[in-house]
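Pair request: fold both.
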Amino acid sequence: MKLGMVGLGRMGGNMTERLRADGHEVMTYARSGGGTSESLEELVGQLETPRVVWLMIPAGAPTEEAFTELLGLLEAGDVIVDGGNSNFRDSQRRHEQAKVVEGIHFLDSGTSGGIWGREVGYCLMVGGDDEPVSVVEPAFLTLAPEGGYAHVGPSGAGHFVKMIHNGIEYGLMQAYAEGFEIMRFSEFPLDLSAVAGIWRYGSVVRSWLLELLVAALEKEGDHLTGIAPYVEDSGEGRWTIAEAIAENVPAPVTSAALFARFASRQEFSYAAKVNAALRNQFGGHAIRAVETAAESPDPR
């Protein structure tokens, strides 16, 4: 099939190459250049009806701006696919806006696979109406490995399932992180790379994340000296917890994992000072003095 890809970063660029390798004709646009077109308008002009435009750009303003512009360029029956990590509520709104106002189809495709997707395929969680799904399905089947694609439900369902997927990922990553930190500071001279390596085979905790950890340890060493202890989040964990609260579903693991990421960004922790002060007050426990002001930067 023929389609347009908007965004040629680590995901969009690799997805384009995987599609082309399977015989699809992919026209491309990126604000940074390097595509087959210099604008969204030119990209749309390179496609044939029903046109399919796949957005693989950051969630939020970039996606909203591209979506809004495309509504003025596409025609009834054309399809917009958002493969980024948009909030599922935004996807539901965009689906209704495109369908009601312009008669344009909108699909939300939760996409997992990272930088390895080009080689091994992407897990695709697609939400939206049946008709546009059938139009884009040849591309879905190419991008996903066997068994790795499903039309999971109506509009918003794809990004909702991807949101939960990423919330689970937070918990898994934090469990590995805590376990390896305990081993790192234990009394035993453990080879953490070797431990992670054997856990890949026969262990009940084996996973692709563990395989990636092995690769990181082999590259950076057991101390991970080249990696700063700062963990970012892209929003899905927060959204997962918000939905859990709305549904009265307890999600302590996901919540703790998100808060651990927040903690990793603190150069200064007033909460730690409060804890230390209280331990000193009620139990006379020693307080570690601050030797220089530079060691305890206070952002306020």
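--- second member of the pair ---
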Amino acid sequence: MIQKYNINPKVIHLDSFDYEEGIKFSLIPAEIDNKSYFVANEDNLMDALNLYSKIDQQFEILITDKDSFERLLSQVIELKTQKDLEENNFEEDEEENIDLEDFVKSSIDILNSEDTAPIIKFVNSMFFQAVKKQASDIHIETHEHYGMLRFRIDGVLINQAKINKKVVELIINRIKVISNLDISEKRIPQDGRTHIKLQKQQIDIRVSIIPTYFGEKVVMRILMESSQIPTLKELGFDSHITDGFKELLDHSYGMILVTGPTGSGKSTTLHSFLQTIASNEKNIITVEDPVEYKTDNINQIQVNQKVGLDFQKALRSILRQDPDIVMVGEIRDKETAQIAIQAALTGHLMLSTLHTNSAVAAITRLIDMGIDSYLISSSLIGVLSQRLSRVLCSCKKKNNLYKNELEKIIGKVDFDLYEPVGCEKCNFTGFKGRKAIGELFMINDEVRILIAKGASDVEIKNNAIKYGMKTLKDSIVDLIKAGDISFKEAVRIGLKD
């Protein structure tokens, strides 16, 4: 019998060994330095020795600390359940009516069972429900006395299940296993990726885990396939904006920017642009953080800060790859902005995003970064500022409570306002789907002169309106008039900005 701490043993398979018993009594067969052992946890040594006495296969016992044993245990669970994850192809009539909170309440044996199946089934059902409800993110939070599962649907977090705190720990361990993360590490943030198979569809998921005061919090972003990228028409913008997109994308060089807050659909719009202009004759390269849509007809680079691959380094390398079209996920600093503008000036069509509240404000933002106004006027060809608004479900009802408040913003209101109600069709949220709203700022010669002169945002905006630009505020008011959105939703997306 020997002792060896702080190791990372590799689990081995023995046909005669009951791995459920091994998990229960903390004794697992493993290989270390090309030699086979039975590895025991020092905290449960007596149980391990009792099991060892009943086994025919007599390897030496290696006693290790809790963390090392946890790493080995995570391998066992992964090997034991990976086949289930890959082969599990949910049938809709079997899983669609599962209520996750009811599932947790009915699975009272989860904490008392050595079998990992209830946790596996819960996690699989969680993914199924998230995809079915068209959630973009899954949140698992640990509070003082319980855990909470929430889905982000149409941009808003909605509670799905309240979970026993100990069950939350098992669920998070399961997520770590399928994401190749360290199951024993609970003190530092961890990032990973996994993929699941639902109804013959492969779905990629980005996993982020952070330690919080009462335990770990998990956020999982459901990443999309190229087949799910909407066309320009499917984006939902008004026809005059869609026509403007087509005009911008006909350019062979110049910079197109998409602006808006986090979660406003900027990446989706950029990928829709790329799919519109992609062809065998064009070399398209993107730099993204993360790669949200996997596509076969463009070359995608994932930013990796751990190895020093940031937007600037990737963008410099891209320009040596003979690109026709370049997409940078976000312009965050002066250096990235300078390289992007140089690319636009030297014969490349450059697409990127900025965080600004309006289209015209993109110019001010670039100047604040330290970019000369004459470079902006020479390279920029168009800016789209966009929002995503939740659309009222057909169960909506008239409510003119906020009419006076709306009149303070836009003047006389001679139409009815509507508010959400909630029904089965909209999961009792009152909203069904989202609609893209935008203002498209096309750069003409007059605007170029104004930018080069250092004109204010107001002067540039007034010029753009003179030439037909419809502002975000006007588009939002049109949706209120049509009864598509509520007053509160209009304020949330920028009516008062």
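Observation on the second member. The first strand starts at residue 2 and ends at 3.
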